[in-house]
Specification:
single chain; 215 residues; alpha+beta; 2 domains; 4-stranded antiparallel sheet; 25% helix; RHS; Rhs_assc_core; T6SS_VgrG/RHS; RHS repeat protein
Length: 215
């Protein structure tokens, strides 16, 4: 991957240097063109930092909500409210110098005994999520976070853990059934070796969570 200064992909090349994908990413993240010199279509779903293109909706998945590039804004309000600024739908003041990544490499799970939640992001994001969903980390009776050093692995582990607990549909979980993680598509497309690795990591995170005793 070859990116600009903000981390937005501009080109993808093969090991031999062949250009397999190049995009024209407009100011607020819309991909206006796909170019390839390899003779075959290359699916490149990454957009602005932390965003993953959703083929079904045409929107960009950004962890807690979706982003509409043609509008340059999110389609729902910031889940942390005015703490994130007075514009609840804004991606960044200037996409050439500001980023709103949220799609980092870790995966986490926590509960206060009543509300359960599975999410993706750094450890600091887990604590922010605790503040928003259970009134703070002091109320968490069990929690676990693991950083896998790879964004795609994080998405796939999140998916497998959500599947294990039926988190999208269980009334005990605060996860929304309307939000579909890219992890499912990544996992379904992965080879058997990668799927086994993801399953091991998901089980490891779950074991860490089950063994935890509060914050």
């Amino acid at each position: 991957y070859h990116t600009d200064v903000t981390g937005t992909p501009q080109e993808v090349t093969a090991a031999d240097g062949t250009l397999v994908w190049a995009g024209y990413i407009r100011g607020f993240g819309e991909n206006a063109a796909d170019i390839s010199n390899s003779g075959a279509y290359f699916h490149q779903p990454l957009r602005l930092p932390g965003q993953y293109f959703d083929d079904e909706t045409g929107l960009h998945y950004n962890l807690f909500r979706y982003y509409a590039p043609e509008c340059g804004r999110f389609v729902s309000q910031d889940p942390i409210g005015l703490v994130g600024g007075i514009n609840l739908y804004q991606y960044g003041s200037n996409p050439l110098s500001w980023i709103d990544p949220w799609g980092l490499t870790g995966t986490y799970i926590f509960t206060d005994g009543t509300t359960y939640y599975i999410g993706k992001g750094p450890e600091s994001r887990m604590y922010d999520s605790m503040d928003y969903r259970i009134g703070g980390r002091a109320n968490a009776i069990q929690f676990a976070h693991m950083d896998f050093g790879d964004d795609k692995l994080g998405f796939m582990v999140e998916h497998r853990l959500m599947e294990k607990y039926n988190a999208r549909y269980s009334p005990d979980f605060a996860n929304s059934e309307r939000i579909s993680s890219p992890g499912k598509r990544l996992y379904d497309a992965a080879d058997a070796k990668t799927q086994r690795k993801v399953n091991r990591l998901a089980n490891k995170l779950d074991s860490k969570y089950r063994a935890s005793k509060g914050c």
